[in-house]
Amino acid sequence: MQASKVAYKPVGFALGAVSGAVAGAAFKQVWKVIGHDDDAPDATDQDRSWREVLIAAMLQGAIFAVVKAAVDRGGATAVHRLTGTWPG
Asked: Tens digits of per-residue pLDDT, 48-88?
């Protein structure tokens, strides 16, 4: 296994936790603006419409994917700078 892959593994785990927290906070802020409510609907929330539940899920998924990709790319770039090889 390449040194960069080994070096990236613990970095990747840490970044995964950070990206989840960042994405969750970002989604809450976006939902406050778009949904005009502090809490996003759960799929089983009887008082929310299908449309609202599905829009919230779609938005949450998109935010998580973008944040994860940005954090993973930043981590890989940092490992590349430190080791000279790309972790992949």
From this structure: 999 999 999 999 999 999 999 999 899 889 888 988 888 87
CA distance 83 to 25: 32
CA distance 75 to 38: 32
Q: What 3-state DSSP class applies to 13?
A: helix
Q: How far apart are CA 84 and CA 79, in angstroms?
A: 8
Contacts by residues 52-57 (CB-CB < 8 Å, ≥ 24 positions apart)? 56/31
For the chain, the average pLDDT equals: 88
Handedness of CA 74, 75, 80, 82 (dihedral sign): positive
Q: Which amino acid is at 32?
A: K
79/11 Cα distance (integer angstroms) = 9
Task: Report DSSP state, residue 36.
Answer: S
Q: Quick one: pLDDT at residue 75? A: 85
